[in-house]
C-alpha cells in the first residue's frame, strides 16, 4: 500500500509538477507584479520626500548649482529661463550678494538693463511696454513683484511671461516695501549680465524709446537716486537720534522711491544688514522708509556716484501724500512733450533738457491715447 501510495504519490506528485510548469510562471509573475507595484510606490514616495527635503533642508545644493552639473562656464552664467525659485529671503539675498571680483570677463558680456516692476498684480500698460521692448532682446530683463497670491497670465509670446518673482505682502510706506525692492534687486542680480536696475510701478510709462533710454543710462557717470538733505517735518524731521551712530542727522537723506542704480550700488543694498535693522526699527510712519533708507545709506558711502535726482517724473504739485494720477482726458501730445523736456537738470555735470525717462502716475484709461501717440511722441 505504501508502495502503491508511493507510486500514487509520485503520480500525484508528478501531476502537480506538470502543473507547476504552467503554475510557476504565474506565481512568479504575481510576485513580480507585486514587487513592481511596491517599488513604484516607494519611488514615488521617495521622490516626493527628496523634493520636500531639498526645499526644506538642502537649500545649499539648490543655491550653488543652477543645473545639476556645471561642466561649462556657459551653464553657470546662463540665467534660468524662469525666474521662479524656492529660496526664502535670507537665502536669496545671500546668494545675490556673491560677485565676481575679476572684472575681465572670459566671455562676451552684453550689459543689460533690469526693469523691475513693483506692482499689486495687473500691469495695465503692458501693451505699451511690449511695444517698447520689441526688437531689443538681449539688452533687457524683466522682473515683476506682485501681491503674493496674484497669478499673472501672460501668453508665452509676452515679454512678461514667467517674469513674476516669488513675492510677499507689501504695505504702503512700511519696510515691507523696501524688502520687496531688495527682493527685486536680488533676483535681478542673479543674472550676471544685468548692469543697471530700474524700479517701476504699474502706473509708470516710458517717455522715450528703448535705445534712447539704454544709451542715456549706460553713458551716465551717475546712478539716478534722489538724495536731498531737506529741512522741516518731512525731511530731517523724520530722523530719529536712535539711528546713531551709524546714521547721523547730517547724513539723513530723502529721495523718490523710483530709482535707477548700477550693479555696484544694487549689491551694496542687497548685502546691507546694518542700516536695514536701523531703518526697520526707527523709521516707521510718518517716517516713510522707502523715501529714506536707500537714499541715506547710499549717500553715506557712494555720494560721489549719485546724480541725486530721479529719472521718473511725478506730479506732486497738488500736495498730499500721493501724486496726481493722469487719465485719458489729459493725454495729449503737448502734455507728453511738457513732461519730456519741460525742465532742466544736470546730466554728466552738463545742463540738459532731458531729465526724465519714465513718468507716473497714469490711470489704466490712459493706455489707449498713449498707444496712439507713442510712435510720434515717445519714439516707439
Ligand atoms: C530661510 O530658510 C533657512 C533654512 O531653512 C532658515 O534658517 C532661515 O531662517 C529662513 N529665513 C527666512 C527669512 O525665513
TrEMBL record:
Subcellular location: Membrane
Annotated Gene Ontology cellular component terms: membrane
Membrane topology: Single-pass type II membrane protein
Entry-linked Pfam families: Branch
InterPro entries, per the entry: BC10-like, Glyco_trans_14
Transmembrane segments: 31-50
Molecular function terms, GO-annotated: glycosyltransferase activity
Keyword Transmembrane: yes
Keyword Protein biosynthesis: no
Entry keywords, A to Z: Glycoprotein, Glycosyltransferase, Membrane, Transferase, Transmembrane, Transmembrane helix
Protein name from the UniProt record: Core-2/I-branching beta-1,6-N-acetylglucosaminyltransferase family protein
Species of provenance: Brassica carinata (Ethiopian mustard)
Amino acid at each position: 500500500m505504501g508502495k502503491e501510495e508511493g507510486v500514487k504519490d509520485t503520480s500525484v506528485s508528478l501531476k502537480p509538477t506538470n502543473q507547476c510548469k504552467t503554475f510557476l510562471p504565474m506565481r512568479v509573475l504575481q510576485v513580480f507584479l507585486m514587487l513592481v507595484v511596491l517599488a513604484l510606490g516607494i519611488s514615488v514616495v521617495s521622490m516626493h520626500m527628496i523634493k520636500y527635503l531639498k526645499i526644506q533642508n538642502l537649500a545649499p545644493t539648490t543655491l550653488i548649482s543652477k543645473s545639476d552639473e556645471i561642466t561649462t562656464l556657459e551653464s553657470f552664467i546662463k540665467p534660468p529661463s524662469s525666474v521662479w525659485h524656492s529660496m526664502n529671503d535670507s537665502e536669496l539675498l545671500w546668494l545675490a550678494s556673491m560677485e565676481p571680483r575679476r572684472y575681465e570677463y572670459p566671455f562676451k558680456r552684453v550689459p543689460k538693463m533690469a526693469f523691475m516692476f513693483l506692482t499689486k498684480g495687473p500691469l495695465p500698460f503692458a501693451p505699451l511696454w511690449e511695444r517698447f521692448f520689441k526688437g531689443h532682446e538681449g539688452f533687457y530683463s524683466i522682473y515683476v513683484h506682485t501681491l503674493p497670491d496674484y497669478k499673472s497670465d501672460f501668453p508665452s509670446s509676452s515679454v512678461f511671461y514667467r517674469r513674476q518673482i516669488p513675492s510677499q505682502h507689501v504695505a504702503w510706506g512700511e519696510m515691507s516695501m523696501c524688502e520687496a525692492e531688495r527682493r527685486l534687486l536680488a533676483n535681478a542680480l542673479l543674472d550676471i549680465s544685468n548692469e543697471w536696475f530700474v524700479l517701476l510701478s504699474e502706473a509708470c510709462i516710458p517717455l522715450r524709446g528703448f535705445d534712447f533710454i539704454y544709451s542715456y543710462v549706460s553713458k551716465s557717470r551717475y546712478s539716478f537716486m534722489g538724495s536731498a538733505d531737506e529741512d522741516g517735518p518731512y525731511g530731517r524731521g523724520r530722523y530719529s537720534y536712535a539711528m546713531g551712530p551709524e546714521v547721523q542727522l547730517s547724513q539723513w537723506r530723502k529721495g523718490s522711491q523710483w530709482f535707477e542704480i548700477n550693479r555696484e550700488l544694487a549689491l551694496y543694498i542687497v548685502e546691507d544688514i546694518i542700516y536695514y535693522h536701523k531703518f526697520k526699527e526707527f523709521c516707521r510712519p510718518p517716517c516713510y522708509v522707502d523715501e529714506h533708507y536707500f537714499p541715506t545709506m547710499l549717500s553715506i558711502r557712494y555720494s560721489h556716484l549719485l546724480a541725486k535726482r530721479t529719472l521718473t517724473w511725478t506730479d506732486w504739485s497738488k500736495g498730499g501724500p500721493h501724486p496726481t494720477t493722469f487719465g485719458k482726458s489729459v493725454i495729449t501730445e503737448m502734455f507728453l512733450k511738457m513732461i519730456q523736456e519741460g525742465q532742466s537738470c544736470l546730466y554728466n555735470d552738463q545742463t540738459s533738457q532731458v531729465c526724465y525717462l519714465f513718468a507716473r502716475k497714469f490711470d489704466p484709461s490712459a493706455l489707449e491715447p498713449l498707444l496712439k501717440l507713442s510712435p510720434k511722441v515717445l519714439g516707439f
